[in-house]
Write a structure and sequence with these properties.
The termini are far apart. By secondary structure, the chain is mainly α. The longest helix is centred in the last third of the chain and has 31 residues. The protein is elongated, with a radius of gyration of 17 Å.
Amino acid sequence: MVVPVNYYLGLSLALFTLGAIGVLIRRNILIILMCIEMMLNAVNLAFIAFADAFKAVDGQIFVFFVMTVAAAEVAVGLALVIAIYRNRATVYVDDLNILKW
């Protein structure tokens, strides 16, 4: 049984939408980072679906690139969150105004 590409793209769109809504609505930095990861994985799912549909490896190569960027984002993001938490004792973006003048 072969699952049509449209189903994968629908799931990818749903995951990306949930991630975007999470980034826009939530105020906790950790949850925002998780929502960004969800959005990156949604893009990965779309890349894999298209790579399978068109029988090309380009999408899979992009997936490895996106996974590398996601791993770097997690490493840098969590380091920043830990540094911010140590200085401010909060992870809520409403309480952080360190970039304001």
